[in-house]
Structures are given as structure tokens and as C-alpha cells.
Amino acid sequence: MSSALKITVILSLLLSAGCHAAGTAPRKTLAPFASEQALSSYLQQVQARQEALLLKQQKLQRATAQYMAAPPPAPPAAPMVAKAAPAASAEAAESVTNVQTAGVDEGGIVKLHGKHLVMLRRGKLFTVQVGGNALQPVASLDAFAPGSDPSGSWYDEMLIDGDTVVVIGYSYSRGGTEIGLFDIAADGKLAYRSTYHLRSNDYYSSRNYASRLIGSKLVFYSPLSLNLRRGDPFGGFPALRRWRPDAVPSDFKRIAPATRIYRTDEEPEPGTNLALHTVTVCDLAQRDMRCEATAVMGPQGRVFYVSGESVYVWTTRRGSDSGLFRIPLDGSAPSALKVAGAPVDQFSFLESADGHLNVLLRAEGQGDAMWDGTRGRGDMALLRVPLASFSDGRDSAPAGSYQPLPGGGGYGLQNRYVGAYLLYGNPGNPGRRKADQAWPRQPLYAVRWADGGSVQALSLPHGVERIEALGDDAVVIGAQGKDLHFSSIRLGTQAAVATRYIRADAAQGESRSHGFFYKPQAANEGVIGLPILGADERPGLNKSSASVLYLRNSGLQLTELGALAARPGQPPDDGCRASCVDWYGNARPLFLQGRVFALLGYELVEGALKEGQVREVRRISYAPAAR
To answer: What is the pLDDT of residues 191-226, one digit of tens each?
Structure first.
């Protein structure tokens, strides 16, 4: 561990003796504000302290400027950056989304409703009939309210509950998360129902998804930054409004009263804005959506993970201290722990069936807003704490809960829990190399997280760009020179590299977790699908992947079945009005009722397995005509 992480762990041991308890319920929870008046008084105190600190800093700056013969050069500007769950049901078995936790669906760009695939792309919804051996476009509809101006809005994620399609987006013009509800009929026809605005800051993450669906409960995590020096602080608190053509800001109604807002004993960081880490649960069982929110005050940096019962939010301060919040989805009081280090992304977390939370950590990190999840550095550790050790935020995770791990948490680190193992590794040199150049072997670390944490380092001739489950085993995908390697990993008593498939002159076409899908067909048998490009191509936000590659897994032996390719040439002019960049990708492998598909932009290509090869049978375009 780094010295900062070591010191924090030692302190945590002194602060937290005896915090373990039986069961998973916390012994103590965070306390909410008793009233609106108590909350208002606290915010006024924080504002006064921040203003006093600002005045002190200004005086110090003036004194320094007078003392120095010449002021020091200004520092360079920071670079700008763009933008245990229920058992799976038979319906979930036909899911087309590569989710992290069984029973917890994630917002995506393609879902299944009965006999129809539903796609969200470039500000519109589309349905294509696939049932009864069909492949036929049925309907399309704007993904925003009729009569509304979609400019400045991005429509990113979609979920389906019963006959309700939910579109989740972010509106810079209206200032918050936009939730569109649509009706879908058995024949695939779509109808607009309503739109709601949820007050939030930008939720975008290059690795995570903003929304989850558990049963009929729509779950959002959203950060809200409170600038106490500007106007009414309550103007930034969690609120919801139903859209109408003449909607005004006063239509927002608070959904998190003071008695559902919590804080720890940690004082806000001087000179920084407070963040309200907000979990909103909306009931989709009613046609008129109703939502409730729970919020915890903390620093800005965050990573969140959704289990079947709770949302975990890891917040990071500018120093080495961090806070970990457990926010139950049933509306009960949150609990917290003082912790050290920072997770990579949501895949760093596992709420395991033995009543523990497991988190892979780096010494330093900034959370996973925008592209921050790819950053981070320092020594690594595995934190493993009983759920019962969460409390009112005054306790720290015991030092014995941190297991030091090998490897440095470099740029682009990948991590995933598969069965009894935590796997992690780095992509290596992201630049393309010539095929005949030597490639330094990359370690894949395999940690048995539940039984004392024995660690193995498996040597791979390629980088670690993706880690995915193959049933109880795993596949690791990454580049070596101009080739794309797939290494199957056997996860038994020991972890071992089983076999390797190499696709020459290729690269991943999608980096998000939803770009990959594994369809089990029998014990130790199944088919892998992954979008790919040529090695000299670069994934682009405005273009489709060249093809989707399919591999057969047979006892961890990987063999190529072939690929379904996009039609070459310019994409059709769709007259796009909103969300005209594919931030969440546009290519997916799909497996439905024994059939194989490739979603490639506006094309849906069907293949059939013949003589050990996937061969194209037909394709359709569901692109809208330009207006």
C-alpha cells in the first residue's frame, strides 16, 4: 500500500475495534435532519465557514502578492474532458443485456419485449418484430415529449417494465435527468405517455449506467452539487416535475424532505461544494410515476454500485480519506463507514451472499464521473467488510479488512468478480504495435476473495482490456500488437489459463460492458459475441463497429464461428435532432430463442449456424427517413 493508505488503515484499526456484528443489519445508522429548520441552519453554518475561509484565502493571496517581487506564474489549466439479487427468471434468461448482478437490469440501448426488439438510438425509439421467425421493422417514435425541444438533451438508456418503456436522458437545457414513459403494445406499436424531470447534475460515466430496474422499481443514482454561495440552496435539492409545454422551475416538487437527508460527523471540505449523493426510487406499477429520494451529504468524487437491496456510494475527498455509504432501496436509513483508497468502478464491488461487501481499491482515485474511472493510481488492496459493520459513519473499516494486493492501479485498469475470484489487470500500452515487435507479458491477477485471499499472477501475452464471465469461468480479452486475443481462464481450486484464440488484425469495437454477451447453451458450452474493428481502425462515436465476432466455448476451448458484418458505405441520413452521438455505443451481439443477431447501427443482421460457421441469412435497416 502507499504510505497514505497504510496510515489510514492503521488509524482505522484504532478507531473501529469491535464494530463487527452478526447478521447484515447495521447496528447504527446515519441520523437525518430533524426538520427543515435544522437543515437550513446547518447549511447556513457551512456557508458561513466557507465564506470565512474564502476571505482568509483572499487576504493571504493579497499579502503574498505584496511580499513577492513578482507573482508566481499561474498553474496550467486542468485539461477539459467531455462529457445478492433475486434469482433469474425464465424471462431474464432471454435478456439481451450483459448485467453485473442477476435480477438487477441496467439501462441499455436494446431490450426485448415479447416478440419485439426495442432499440434506442439517436433520439428515437424503434421496434423490430423477431418473434415467429420474423425480422421486420414495426414502429418508431421520438424518444422525447411531443412538442418539446430536444436540443441540448441526450437520450442514453432504456428499460422495460411490463408494457412500459422507460427512456432515461439528460437535458442540459432543462437541467436534470429526463425520464420518458412510453406504452408498447403486443404488436410492437409505441405511444407516448409522459415525461418527468428529475433534478440532478450530469450522470454520465464512460463505464457505469445511470439507471437500474429491480422488479417494478426504477432506481437512479444522481449527484447534486450544492453551491451555498448562490441563491437558495434548496433550489438544488432532489425534486421531480411532470413536463408540460409551459413548464416552469417552480413546478419541481421536493422528493427528499429534510427527514430523508443524512450526514456523517465529517465536516465539508473547505473551499469545495457539498454534494448530495441521491438515490431515487420510482414506482412503475402506477401509470403516474411516483418517486421518493434519499440523499447523503458528502464530497464530490463518487463511484456507485447497485445490489439487489442497496445502493453503495463511495465518496472521495481531496486527501486520502473516503466515505462509503450503504443506502437501502426500501427507504430505511442509510449507514456508512470511514474507508481508505478508491474503487475503480462499479465492477470493483461485490455484495456477496455471505453477508460481506468486497471492494477492490487503489490508493488514489477521483470516482467514475465522465472518464474518471480510467484514471487512478497507487498500491492496491481488497476491502472485505461484514454488512453489519456499517454504522452511523463514525466507525472505520478495520485495518484487518484490507488485504494488500500486487500490481499498480494504472490507467484503464479492468476488474471483475467471477465466481470465487476477483480478476484484475491493466491493458498495457494502449498504442498499436507492429505485429513483429516484442510485447511485454501482462499479469492477470486472480484473488480468491472469500477464503483468505490467495493471489495468483497469470502471465498473458496481451493486455487486459475486458474481463467477462463464461459461466463459472472467465475470458480475458485484449490486444497484442495488431491482433486481438481471447484467453479463457479456468477458475477452479486454482486459476489457470486454459486456451487462447487470436483474431488477427482486429480490435474491440465497443468498450462498454454491454458490448459483450455470452449465451450459455449447456454446462461448459456457449457462444461469445463481441463487436470488433480492424486493428488500424479506432472506435468512433459516429460510426458502427465493422462486425460482430462469434466464438464457441466448449470446455474453455475457443473456436471461431464467424462474424456478421455491417454493410459498407455511408450511414443513412436520419435527420437526427437529438442525441446524435452514440456515447453508449451502437453495436451489440444478440441471442434470442436459438437465433443469432448482430445490431450494427441502424442494421439488424441475422445469422444461422451452418457447418460450424455463423453465416448471414438476412438483414434489415430500421433507419428512419430524413425529415
So the answer is: 999 999 998 877 777 778 989 999 999 999 888 887
Task: Output phi, psi for 372, to 5 deg.
Answer: -65, -25
Q: Cell numbers of 318, please?
A: 481531496
Q: What is the DSSP string of 344-405?
A: SSGGGEEEETTTEEEEEEEEE---SSBTGGG--EEEEEEEEEEGGG-BEEEEE--GGGEEEE
pLDDT by residue (tens digit) across 489-523? 999 999 999 999 999 999 999 889 999 999 999 88
Q: Which residues contact 460 (CB under 8 A, 6 or more apart)?
A: 425, 441, 442, 443, 444, 476, 478, 485, 487, 497
Query: What are the cell numbers at 522?
Result: 449447456
pLDDT digits (tens, 9 = 90+) for 31-77: 999 999 999 888 888 777 766 555 544 455 454 444 444 444 443 33
Distances (CA, A) of 130 to 57, 89, 175, 600, 623: 64, 21, 37, 16, 17
Q: 611 in the Ramachandran plot: left (φ > 0), alpha (ψ -120 to 50) or beta?
A: left
Report CA-CA distances (Å) from 203 to 68, 171, 624.
43, 11, 28
Instruction: Tell me the C-alpha distance between 506 and 78, whole Å.
Output: 34
User: Where does residue 601 fall: left (phi above 0), alpha (psi -120 to 50 degrees), or beta otherwise?
Assistant: left
Look at the block and give the residue holding cell 432471454: 94
Of 428, 437, 434, the closest CA to residue 462 belongs to 428
Q: Which residue has the cell 493510481?
A: 377
Tell me which DSSP letter residue 264 carries.
-
Query: Hey, what's the cell of 373?
Result: 474511472
Residue 69 confidence (pLDDT): 45
- What secondary structure letter does DSSP report for 148? -
**Whose grid coordinates read 504510505?**
3
Residue 287, classified by CB atoms within 10 Å of its CB into exposed (0-12), middle (13-18) or buried (19+), is exposed
SS3 at position 589: strand
Q: Can you tell me which residue has the cell 475561509?
A: 53
- Give the three-state DSSP class for 211: strand
The rounded Cα 500 to chain-centroid distance in angstroms is 29
Using CA atoms, how far apart are residues 188 and 185, in angstroms rounded to an integer? 5
Rounded Cα distance between 527 and 52, Å, is 62
The DSSP element (H or E) to which 113 belongs, if any, is: strand 110-113
> In the numeric block, which cell numbers belong to residue 525?
458450452
Q: Do 50 and 228 form a contact (C-beta atoms < 8 A)? A: yes
